[in-house]
Design brief:
By secondary structure, this protein is of the alpha/beta class. It has seven helices and 13 strands. The chain has a single domain, classed as P-loop containing nucleotide triphosphate hydrolases (Rossmann fold), CATH 3.40.50.300. Helices cover 31% and strands 29% of the residues. The structure holds adenosine-5'-triphosphate and magnesium ion.
Length: 249
């Protein structure tokens, strides 16, 4: 049998077991989850693992949260992002000011819409930073403001493809977080899920009289993955998955 792709460990206990040892190197994964499900924690854990274990350069593009808030929140898991930044391992891009751009802006002789400007600025700054730093892991937290501003589903598809293609061209392994609005097991699928190389969901499900936090690998190209929903926990070490435990009887 031919060797599979090189794998990039996620640093999340129990998760790599579900995906043949890790994310295929250079692939783009969407991490979907409900509010407070642990999307940010998991994506930072993925970066920290690369920085600590392999001294890899990482890039975190922040769309939603203030840097100081994120750095403080992550300290409780023992992840000192300021220190990684000082060492030159972590490159932090604060893309939150883009939210305050006017709907339409004149650039040179033409007008550009905020949505096209934000997408192309993020792509441009990521490409530039990866070129300068040789980052091996990238997180965009979250892709939701970049993609959801396209109301039309075809436009959203093109925007997602543009983002995924640009990130694939960097050769870095990427995690893009994405808000999930529906609760429960049955949900509609989003266009981003079809275009990305892998999808992992974080949900709370009602099982009997309990609410259980459940991680599910929905897809992972080039991977014989375990697609069963598995319980996960958030502890002082970050996210931990129970890869053998079942949630349904
Ligand atoms: N020290 C801790 N121990 C256990 N659980 C924690 C701890 N700190 C935070 N949490 C849990 O993590 C959740 C927040 O995780 P995180 O910020 O990664 O979620 P998120 O999916 O990114 O949320 P959002 O949609 O708001 O961006 C909290 O709702 C809380 O349940
Ligand atoms: Mg978050």
């Amino acid at each position: 049998m031919l060797d599979g792709p090189e794998r990039v460990g996620t640093g999340v206990l129990g998760l790599d077991e579900l995906i043949q040892g890790g994310i295929p190197k250079g692939r783009i994964i969407v991490l979907m989850g409900e509010p407070g499900a642990g999307k940010t924690i998991l994506s930072v854990q993925f970066l920290v693992s690369g920085m600590v274990k392999q001294g890899e350069k990482c890039l975190y593009v922040c769309m939603d949260e203030e840097k100081k808030d994120l750095f403080r929140e992550m300290l409780q898991f023992g992840w000192n992002l300021a220190e990684f930044e000082e060492k030159g391992l972590l490159h932090f891009i604060d893309a939150t000011p883009l939210r305050f751009m006017p709907e339409r802006t004149k650039l040179g002789l033409t007008y550009v819409d905020r949505k096209d400007f934000t997408l192309s600025s993020v792509i441009e700054v990521v490409q530039r930073t990866v070129k300068e730093t040789q980052a091996a892991r990238i997180v965009v937290d979250s892709m939701t403001p970049l993609i959801l501003q396209y109301g039309d589903v075809m436009q959203r598809r093109w925007a997602t493809m543009e983002l995924v293609t640009a990130l694939t061209n960097t050769s870095a392994t990427c995690v893009l977080t994405r808000e999930m609005k529906t609760l429960g097991y049955k949900r509609g699928l989003e266009v981003e899920e079809f275009i990305s190389h892998g999808v992992i969901t974080l949900q709370s499900l009602k099982i009997g009289s309990n609410i259980v936090r459940v991680l599910q690998v929905q897809k992972m190209r080039e991977t014989m993955c375990d697609t069963q929903p598995r319980p996960y926990f958030i502890s002082k070490n970050g996210i931990e998955v129970r890869p053998k435990a079942t949630v349904f009887e």
